[in-house]
UniProtKB/TrEMBL annotation:
Similarity comment text for this entry: Belongs to the PPC synthetase family.
Name of protein: DNA/pantothenate metabolism flavoprotein C-terminal domain-containing protein
Pfam families in UniProt: DFP (PF04127)
SUPFAM superfamilies linked to this entry: CoaB-like (SSF102645)
Native organism: Lodderomyces beijingensis
Upper classification of the organism: Eukaryota, Fungi, Dikarya, Ascomycota, Saccharomycotina
Length: 343
């Protein structure tokens, strides 16, 4: 029996007045989107379940133990293989500087970081010493038949070493690699789903340079393309568009997280326009626009109704200041507002 204060609803009777309405337009059959189609027709990397376990362990650790906010930083370029047994692939310029540098500033500001990066691209902390000389041995010197850090690098290295150890000891940095665009997309999806329990305390900072075009598995030759198989010595490659995954990320894969995408252009006249249209299209929280030519000197934050530039002077750059040291505190302010607004 229903208690007297509780209203009783009947749902089993048809609504006679509105059951048939011929003036309504035909309802389209459910469509699978390009993104779903992509996952239905491409194989996940075989190691993905192990990555999922690592990520879930990391997320649970921080949720239960440290309570830190969490940043997923993506970094570096994705490859597009031309052959299944890959000898050749298409690549892009990104070395992962933006991602690796930003990850350090997130860590310094108390975030835990999942660093989804192109394998062998720059990593947080080691980046200071890995690509700037011919070899790490350039930082060493010999004394009394022993090898040691050259004293002229020692102070700087000690600073980085301490920060690196702090990140390691507190289990605040999880490194997850990818190489191809397919691996990137599957891994991003898996990490996003594992991060759902983190809700608005998670921030997605998508700095990886993701290829817009790829060769679908259905068209991919198994073996190295032979020059004898080309016509007139020319190789024609037909690429398909990579589906726009940001809408899936915003709508389904993440739950309440703040999502930041990057917009890269080379034409100054397009930057703001393209950043705004990305924001309108995906309804996420922030687009960071940058030009290839000036990306280390200036970026623009485009959020609903707002544009904020961050610029470094030539003097600041000459003194070794990194633009990410200003970008990340500004991102964190946006994240504070996002958490506040979603309370
Ligand atoms: C960026 O715009 C990054 O800032 C850079 C960093 C790739 C320029 P580096 O590794 O470079 O420090 O040398 N990333 C996003 C690029 C991208 O693919 N954006 C897509 C687009 O522009 C949207 S997701 O359409």
């Amino acid at each position: 029996m229903t208690p007297p204060h509780q209203k009783h609803f009947h749902t089993s009777n048809p609504e006679e007045a509105t059951a048939i309405n011929r003036s309504l337009p035909e309802f389209a059959a459910a469509q699978t989107t390009d993104e779903d189609e992509y996952f239905a027709n491409h194989q996940p990397p075989t190691y993905l379940p192990e990555i999922e376990e690592e990520v879930r362990g990391f997320v649970a650790f921080h949720q239960q133990t440290t309570g830190k906010r969490l940043a997923l930083v993506t970094s570096g370029g994705t490859t597009v293989p031309l052959e299944n047994n890959t000898v050749r692939f298409i690549d892009n310029f990104s070395a992962g500087t933006r991602g690796a540098t930003s990850a350090e500033y997130f860590l310094e500001n108390g975030y835990a970081v999942i660093f989804l990066h192109r394998e062998f691209s720059l990593l947080p902390y080691s980046r200071h010493f890995s690509h700037s000389t011919n070899c790490f041995l350039d930082y060493m010197t010999e004394r009394d038949n022993k090898i040691e850090i050259d004293p002229k690098y020692s102070a700087e290295m000690l600073k980085v070493y301490r920060k690196y150890n702090e990140a390691q000891d507190s289990n605040s940095l999880l490194l997850i690699p990818y190489t191809t665009v397919n691996q990137y997309l599957y891994t991003l999806k898996t990490i996003s789903e594992a991060l759902k329990i983190y809700q608005n305390k998670a921030v997605f900072y998508l700095a990886a340079a993701v290829s817009d075009f790829f060769i679908p598995q259905s068209r991919m030759p198994q073996h190295k393309i032979q020059s004898s198989a080309t016509t007139d010595g020319e190789l024609v490659i037909r690429l398909a568009a990579v589906p726009k995954f940001l809408s899936r990320l915003v709508d389904n894969w993440s739950l309440g997280a703040m999502i930041i995408s990057f917009k890269l252009e080379t034409d100054n006249n397009l930057l703001i326009k393209k950043a705004k249209s990305a924001l309108e299209r995906y309804h996420h929280q922030l687009v960071i626009g940058n030009l290839l030519q000036t990306r280390k000197k200036e970026v623009v934050f485009v959020s609903p109704g707002r544009e904020e530039w961050i610029r470094l002077s030539d003097e600041e750059i000459a003194n070794g200041k990194e633009i990410e040291s200003e970008m990340i505190p500004a991102v964190i302010k946006h994240h504070d507002d996002w958490i506040q607004a979603s309370k």
